[in-house]
Amino acid sequence: MTINASPESIEISASDRVFVLTGAGISAESGLRTFRDSNGLWAGYQVETVATPEGWDANPELVWQFYSQRRREAQESQPNAAHYALAELEKRIGERFFLCTQNVDDLHERAGSKNLVHMHGELFKTRCEAKCGACVFEDRDSYNSMREIPICACGARLRPHIVWFGEIPLEMVRIQQEIARCSLLLVVGTSGAVHPAASFVHWANARRGTRARTFYVGPEEPLNANAFTRIIPGRAGETLPCMFKIL
Ligand code: BV8
User: Fold this and answer.
1) Pocket test for ligand 1, best of 68, 71, 123, 165 (most atoms within 8 A of CB)
2) Ligand 1 centroid vs 24 CA: distance in angstroms?
3) Closest atom of ligand 1 to CA, residue 172
4) Which CATH entry fits the domain spanning 10-32+79-120+170-246: 3.40.50.1220, 1.10.10.10, 3.40.50.720, 3.30.1490.20?
5) Rounded to the nearest whole angstrom, what is the distance from the C-alpha of residue 246 to the centroid of ligand 1?
6) What is the reported pTM?
7) What proportion of the chain, given as a percentage, has pLDDT over 70?
């Protein structure tokens, strides 16, 4: 079955296991700003002040303002053709498809993706900053002042369920297992500036046995461009819908 294959298409055989990693670039055509573009998300906010545990300790109100603003923006956005193309591919190849996103928005889920992990956390989830065991819960509210910062029943502050710099990404065991068994690794819309996500292509290349085919899709070369079998230039919303040739 061919999904509108184009000259830049990627053939997927009946035995291929596909690992997809996405970054902020796949949500760019949904109107969500990326991080390192000139007017990126962090414009006006120092990374250290909004995406580190130290920044949270120093000014939890600013951190909640940053994530509340992003909750509002994400709620107003819609999945784009790239999100739908990945959901369609998953429908075609089923459990041979695995999606790991660095993004914290819910656009992949809203496009229909199911077999998905958010390695850097989720925008619409909140958790207790203490280890009181309070579970992670769905939260779409905005907190824009110190008075509003939510407090757990145990008395500790509630924080965004986000992996900040210096914290351990989520689902790493599952991610490593899926990289170990994939035969095709597709990376979409990420600058390759943040680890360990930027190392996934190296992990796939370093495996023993048959080497996975590795592809990058985006308008600019990522920092780890040399590690890929092929770089497919273009915006995700334009290239992904006509990219997969399922044999
Ligand atoms: C950890 C929070 C240990 C969520 C984020 C060297 C080696 C290993 C680690 C390090 C190292 N040096 C420093 C570190 C530590 C650090 C790190 O990587 N620092 C960097 C700055 C050097 N990493 C960590 O602290 C991580 N934890 O290492 O723990 C460990 C490791 C393994 C196992 C156990 C323990 C934690 C990192 C998570 C940090 N949290 N954000 C949030 O607020 O959203 S990272 C942040 O950057 C976002 O999550 C984002 O997803 C991520 C990556 O950014 P990109 O998605 O790539 O976005 P960017 O703007 O950079 O690029 C956008 C791309 O899209 C561009 O290339 C552009 O061309 C493209 N694009 C634009 N338009 C389109 C498009 N593509 C397609 N279509 C379009 N239309």
Assistant:
1) 165
2) 9
3) 33
4) 3.40.50.1220
5) 30
6) 0.95
7) 95
